[in-house]
Amino acid sequence: MSKIVEVVSGGLCTACGGCVGVCPYIKSIEDRVAVIEDCGVEGEGRCYYFCPRTFFDVDEMNGFVFGGRRSEEDVVLGRHISVLAARAKSVAMRKNAQYGGVVSTIISHALETGEIEAAVLTSGGGSCGSYDGGGGELLPTPVIARSKGDVLSCAKTKYFMGASLSALNKALKEGFESVGVVGTPCQIQALRKMQAYGDAVQSGGIYEKIDASKSVKLVVGLFCMWALSYDFLWYLRKHVELSAVRKLDIPVGGFLVFGEDFRKELPLEEVRRYVRHACDVCYDMTSEFADISVGALEGVPDWNTVILRTKLGERIFREAEKAGVLEVKELEVERLEHLRWASLRKKAKAWRRMHEFKVEFLKISELERGIVEGFPLEE
Amino acid sequence: MSITLDAPGREVLLMGNEAIARGAIEAGVAFCSAYPGTPSSEILGVLAEAAPKLGFYAEWSTNEIVAMEAAAAAAFSGLRAMCSMKSQGLSVCADFLTTLNLSGTKGGLVIVVCDDPAALSSVNEIDTRSYAEIADLPLFEPATVQEAKDMTKFAFELSEELCEPCIVRSVTRISHGRGNVRLGEISKERRAAELSERFITGLATSAVERHAGLHAKLRAAAEKFESSPFNFYYGDPNAAFLIITSGAGWLYSKEAFQILGLDEGFGILKLGTTHPLPRRLVASHLKHAVEILVIEETDPFIERKVKALAVDLRLDICVYGRELGSERAFADAVGEMSVDAVIEALQQVKKLSVAGLRNAEYEKEAEEALKILPKREIAFCPGCPHRASLFAIKTAIKLDGRDVPVCGDIGCYTLGMFRTGFYLSKTSHCMGAAIGLSSGFRSLKKPVIALAGDSTFFHACVPGLINAKYNNANVLYILLDNGATAMTGFQPHPGVGTNAMGEPAPTVRLEEVCKGIGVPVRICDPFDVDDAVRAVYELLQQQGGTRVLIFRHTCGIIETKQRGKRKAYVVEEKCIGEDCGCNRFCSRVFNCPGIVWDKEKGKARIDEVVCTGCGVCAKLCPAGAIIVEEESYTG
Ligand SMILES: Cc1cc2nc3c(=O)[nH]c(=O)nc-3n(C[C@H](O)[C@H](O)[C@H](O)COP(=O)(O)OP(=O)(O)OC[C@H]3O[C@@H](n4cnc5c(N)ncnc54)[C@H](O)[C@@H]3O)c2cc1C
Ligand code: SF4
Ligand code: SF4
Ligand code: SF4
Ligand code: SF4
Fold first, then answer.
1. pTM over 0.90
2. ipTM of model
3. Which residues of chain B make contact with A24, given a CB cutoff of 8 A?
4. Class assignment of domain B385-559?
């Protein structure tokens, strides 16, 4: 209990939602998570074990998800089998998606083949208390998706946080036994902690039957550089009519706002001011502990970069390819190099900030530390 | 109903407040008004019930000053009128009262004020007798239930004779005590209302002249009081030790004398008309006394007058009382009087031994009895919408993160300052204070939440809300609309569609009043907990300005009466109990009396007798372990 209060009050909370819905003391709205009252539970409870910001031991997690410690090769992009480029075969799917629609395709395929019975996704349709001027589509709402239709309605990136994993806690309580999860790197970290440490917390009642390590059958991670705070909407509404905005995108060096019939570029330095502070100390750009990680393919809007990490992830991805719903190609070496550079740079920055702010939740090996500290950060 | 019984001479058992009502009926009251407030509410409650039958008029007014003005108008037109209120109510009336005395009245006008010494159900224990002095008006203090009736009736007569309102001051123990009352005749006089004179004050006529006239009337009243049967003497006619007392103090003093066996050398002067003081009567007893003990409820009101009189008469006597700083004070002038308190005072000033009065056995029994009593914290009722509302507010404040302060107000939700209200309220003063205070907290540079109940809103909050709007205060005003004046016994108010006499009445809607003032209004059912949290959160997040949120849900007690209870139970297999994931949230934190912790089983359990089946705990239970059945039952 004490630790989670520190995470929340210290501005470290990513609003992943891992602790939201596991007890009546922690509540969330928008990207805020609050501890309403001291729960009085002795020792550390679920919130402590699930939260990516109380402790995170990279090697221990590597062992839990992949087996063994991280090798030098794994440090930059995390353990992986391959890195490639892919997109949805269906044009409609791509049109509806953020980029190539790989995430939506994999999830809806997994639902259709019965690999999973539900998926924890993030739709739009959120709201923001400080104004009433539309823009809800840009804001996240946690969702338990059961059908292709549900999946499609969750496509496109919401560049805000919204406690998505609270939907997983809900799904598990409702008794779903094979669930897929799509999330940002911090959400994937929390999810893996739920699986790894779920049984560290003694509990009775319905919790006797809840076990994320058994029930979560597919983990798709998103690439993520940072997310925006809700204050950004106040900035955005100065430039565009919020209700007309359909999509946001962050191509290299810019920030794009798309409407039904317009496209507007905003200066990235200005947008950056609204980055959530909790993202400053995020060490993971590519969802290193997912089964499959998906991000943009820089400069090619209707393709994705895909990292296959686990055998499970690889099987599901290849089956989708075989079923003809995915189109796959190799990733050019320069792109891979750029991806590695960007990922390592994020780590180096986060590591430096963690020291500046005296934040000590992350544990990495000496080897990894050497690599990260060796990255030349410009001032 | 015995208060309407037309049987002069018959003795009936009445509550003090019923006796006051009966006194008014016997006096032929034509117009009664009041604002509910413990311990005064029953007066108008029973009068309103009797009104249609006996053909007079009774109303719940929106607040005390309006009640007094309305009653005064009836009296101006020649009718007998009465308004009743609790102690704080008279402070609300102070402005009108201190001009009403100058205009005078035509029909008899009686103001009944029920004080609450020890603040058993009030925010303070103000002694309103001083208002009689401030306003130069005659004051009666009944000492028994019989006197409560007789004095009320007489007050009408005196009022009409002097053409000035008279005040009857009761206290909780008289108002809520019961006693046999010999009934008098019910007046059959029916007057026609007529306004021929002018009732004006101040600039139109000379206030000074009127003030002088008022004093002349007071002198006349004093003269009458010299021989009033409400003042009498008990005990040794030449007593050297004298208790002077009024109100409930009379019976306490008499009992103390009996217990202590005090007779020779001891006497009691019981006063029923304490303003203006019957000086000659009191003086006649001061002359045989050497020591005087004044026993009265709360302030040293009589004590000061007696001391002043002794100085005028150049008497060398010793007066023990409760004057602040007095060398002869036997106690501080706070809290309630009782037989024990009188005995203690006697023991102190007379160095009387009370050994053997309280035996060890009695003390032990009393102690044991206290142990058997279950420990009960003051709490919202089961099914109370305020618990849900305050929990939602607390949650939203945490989510908002700015530690937004909450100003409480007067009503059941005053409990917002205790555990049952999650210690939310930072302030709690008088009716309507929350909205006034909240607009003054502007230097905090964050929004402030103010609370008010529906009845409280009509009573005293509209000017405060207009002030907040006009001065652009950053206030979220949350109206806890439970459709009743619940705290004082579910009296109707302007929002509910019936009047005091049970007739249909036009409805004044909270939201329409607010919209009329020009503040945005949102309405939400606090039992939809998630929506309620969101509503508070979103309104807090708005950029400044005054906005209103109405939490609308019928008072749990009324709702249970109307639709019966629902059966609720805990599915034990699902209940997380004390473990991480709950730790007794329902019984420990949400703390509805309907749900208890079964220590042996380590599970929560619904107490069926208490639980109304409102279902809020079921919505908050993290395990879905509480089930509430759809169907309701009565019983
Ligand atoms: C906050 C954020 C920042 C990102 N930053 C980068 C980046 O810097 N570089 C990069 O290459 N890629 C980034 N991405 C990922 C990228 O935007 C795409 O989501 C990803 O490439 C998948 O594309 P797609 O076409 O397959 O997505 P789609 O098929 O459209 O599916 C998108 C999926 O993302 C999920 N989702 C949307 N918003 C959220 C959210 N707020 N939280 C959790 N899940 C969400 C939805 O559930 C949906 O399933 C970011 C994503 C997010 C949420
Ligand atoms: S320790 Fe358990 S009950 Fe307490 S806040 Fe954390 S998750 Fe909730
Ligand atoms: S688990 Fe996630 S939502 Fe909860 S405190 Fe940690 S980072 Fe925040
Ligand atoms: S809130 Fe629910 S789980 Fe917790 S003790 Fe009560 S019934 Fe059991
Ligand atoms: S249902 Fe729950 S909250 Fe409602 S009265 Fe019963 S125990 Fe109390």
1. yes
2. 0.92
3. 582, 585, 589, 620-622
4. alpha beta
